[in-house]
Amino acid sequence: MQRVCIISTGTELMLGSTVDSNANFLSRCLTDLGFKVVTRYTVGDSEEYIREAFTQGLRQADLIVSSGGLGPTLDDLTKQTACQVLGVQPVLNNEEVQRLRDFFRRRNREMPEANLKQAMFPPEALILPNRVGTAPGMYIARQGKAVALLPGPPREMEHMYRSALEPVLKKEFSIEPKVARQTIKVLGPGESQVEALLGSLMEQPDYSIALLAKDGEVHVKVSAEAKDLEQAEAIRDRAVSLVEAKLVSHVFGYDDDTLEGRVAVLLEEQGLKLAVAESCTGGLLSKVLTDIPGSSLYFWGSVCSYSNEAKEMLLDVNPDTLNRFGAVSPETAAEMATGLRSRSGVDYTLSITGIAGPGGGSAEKPVGLVFLGLAGPEGCSVKELRFVGHREAIRILAVKSALDLLRRQLTRGGSKA
Amino acid sequence: MQRVCIISTGTELMLGSTVDSNANFLSRCLTDLGFKVVTRYTVGDSEEYIREAFTQGLRQADLIVSSGGLGPTLDDLTKQTACQVLGVQPVLNNEEVQRLRDFFRRRNREMPEANLKQAMFPPEALILPNRVGTAPGMYIARQGKAVALLPGPPREMEHMYRSALEPVLKKEFSIEPKVARQTIKVLGPGESQVEALLGSLMEQPDYSIALLAKDGEVHVKVSAEAKDLEQAEAIRDRAVSLVEAKLVSHVFGYDDDTLEGRVAVLLEEQGLKLAVAESCTGGLLSKVLTDIPGSSLYFWGSVCSYSNEAKEMLLDVNPDTLNRFGAVSPETAAEMATGLRSRSGVDYTLSITGIAGPGGGSAEKPVGLVFLGLAGPEGCSVKELRFVGHREAIRILAVKSALDLLRRQLTRGGSKA
């Protein structure tokens, strides 16, 4: 098996102010790809220690993947140090200079001279484009060893790994995976309820199931290993079917699926439009729905009615309702949903009103009390929920529950929920 | 300054299934104690790589702190390997044997023979008791170097560090914190522009400045070391003043401050109310503003007008404006802000309209083009911005820029922006 050494550079890591999530991401991805990660080094922005890490890594592994230290500033030392260790000489790459100049021109900004450093590469290297930031990465093979340099910001690093480095590694190392995995995603029952529903499936000899609770969702991770990938996939597929049969309508998706993505597909397939009215979630439901590119196809817009005035003025909630039942009540949730539906003329509206805390709770209406409204061609329904946790957790759980309410409504036509 | 090497062992780390939070915890604690963490190694449960890590660590640092590999099973190799490298011989410690037997007796369980391994220590070592699990740690000083071994489970490791190791380190290394830090947070100029503005401040002998770019913000991290903490703080304070003098109105906060938190304070102090109208950011600005508990004091609410219809219906944007100039135009941004201000009667409204991508761009109006509107008692102003990056980055940058526009407006009364 091909051995890998992962190097992370950055003084912020050594101070403990930043968790080295890059090393974890790369360990997972490279293991999945079939590599064996043997060592990981984390060093500050120090030429001495960066040099030692690369020297050791080349001795211990067939491939080094590093992240960090590709920026334009003085303390970005990874590229020049790695090149020294490899005995190659970075020179100005004219295409990269042009790309950098374009980058700054598009932003109407002068390019600082320091940035030219980011256009220096040894001629032997393959340049890995950075579609997210200014620092390109590189891949270089020398004397039976390979070194890949990725940028430090996790989003840039992950994007470059997936889009540029992984395809190169697959080709250069002719790798064959033997483990098949799938994650089944569930909303509704908690982790221990899922465990009880799965029962004996949790302890089978030829595949393994692990549960992960995350923001109200439960992820059921199925993995199977066999003598080749085809056989592993067959075992995994059988296990996934058994899990699905136990969890039925609670399953909303697989692997990278999201609840909002599932809702988006259902709305698009059925040619429906959605608008939302939020209070305690403050725009989070709207934000999550519009995280999806192209959401303007089915998303009309939203109102975050954080004040009673906004509820009356933008959603036509009756002042009497607010006075008699309060802003956090099933009556207000219903009027928020129906008011916005009448105004916008869309097919479905979702509403959320509740107490996210830490303040604003009472014995009668405690922090965590949330009402969801769903208005559609079938009429309007309201659901009461009680969450426990801090402000952020309550807001996330409220948003997920609202999305799930709509998901179950939209799937009711097809399979029974 | 005393140098530290941190070693984490455990195959689960190399597979990426577990994040190495121990290394982060120890980095923070040891830095706060006055040590300089120079290298971190993460290795699997392999004698070869554990030996290399300890050998390297002893060369590079005055102190090694490791976590993991102290358990009773075959793959727990840290203690025996570290002892080999140090040239010391673990022998059965009778007190520890007794303690282990008691531990199992209290739980009415038979002690597996394998556990005896956990009672083996070199006579030179100080045994660090484990009040949470079965594996004790150890501390040993040899030839001017010191090595501490802690268990892997984070709860056990953290407890042992705080209760047993930290007091020993304070005594043995006669440490007194001598480093003073502050982070100055900036929005507006990019990382290399900040570096250019700071000029020679970046390279001073008695304090150090590191820059970190994060979601459009630049964090200027100032740290000063001196013979005692008081003097370090004085040097740091002088450095911070010099940095502030260069960056003036671009500075929005310090340390844990956030941009939205700064805006919240300004609105509250001045008794002002805010409402926002968003398009491409889809509710993110509203969400960020309401992340802050108590935001209902100054936040009226928001409209996410994702469709033209919503812009007309909820914000009174003129259909002619949309037809003539388009939804992404300075004219629409202005009408969104003024329309919502008239409706809500609040002091200030912010608006955002733009193209977050990946679709929807054109040569004339590319992905990343964003217009911000700010309406207030002074009238309405519009700002044009061009961002480069993916959808999420563009949305975050647009939200930060909108908050910064308002921050600069609200501070203009006091210090000139």
Task: Record keyword descriptors for this entry.
homodimer, 417 residues, alpha/beta, Molybdenum Cofactor Biosythetic Enzyme, Chain A, Alpha-Beta Plaits, Maf protein, 6-stranded mixed sheet, 5-stranded mixed sheet, 14 helices, 17 strands, 41% helix, globular
Count every helix of chain A, treating DSSP H or I runs of 4 or more residues as helices.
Answer: 14
Q: Could you give the distance between the termini of chain A?
A: 46 Å
Give the class-level CATH name of the largest domain in chain A.
Alpha Beta
Strand order of the largest sheet of chain A: 2-1-3-8-7-6
**Tally of discrete structural domains of chain A:** 3
CATH homologous superfamily name of the largest domain in chain A? Answer: MoaB/Mog-like domain
Largest sheet of chain A: 6 strands, mixed
Show unreliable segments of chain A. Answer: none
| β-strand number of chain A | 17
**Helicity of chain A, in percent?**
40-55%
Largest interface: A-B, 91 and 91 residues
Name the assembly state. Answer: homodimer
In terms of DSSP E residues, the strand content of chain A is 15-25%
Which fold name corresponds to the CATH topology of the largest domain in chain A? Molybdenum Cofactor Biosythetic Enzyme, Chain A
Mean pLDDT of chain A equals: 93
Notes on the protein architecture:
- The structure is a homodimer of 417-residue chains.
- With 417 residues, the first copy, chain A, is α/β, with parallel strands linked by helices.
- Chain A has 3 domains: 3-173, 3-Layer(aba) Sandwich (Molybdenum Cofactor Biosythetic Enzyme, Chain A); 179-254, Alpha-Beta Plaits; 259-412, Maf protein (Alpha-Beta Complex), CATH 3.90.950.
- Chain A has helices at 11-14, 21-32, 47-60, 78-86, 94-106, 154-173, 191-198, 229-247, 259-269, 284-290, 308-315, 319-325, 330-344, 391-412, and strands at 3-9, 36-43, 63-67, 91-92, 120-121, 126-128, 137-142, 145-150, 179-187, 208-214, 217-225, 251-254, 274-278, 299-304, 348-354, 369-376, 379-386.
- In chain A, the strands form 4 sheets. In chain A, strands 2-1-3-8-7-6 form a 6-stranded mixed beta sheet, sandwiched between helices. Chain A has a 5-stranded mixed beta sheet with strand order 14-13-15-16-17, sandwiched between helices.
- In chain A, helix 2 (21-32) runs parallel beside helix 6 (154-173) and helix 9 runs parallel beside helix 14.
- Chain A is globular.
- Chains A and B meet through helix 1, helix 2, strand 2, helix 3 and helix 10 of A and helix 2, strand 2, helix 3, helix 7 and strand 10 of B.
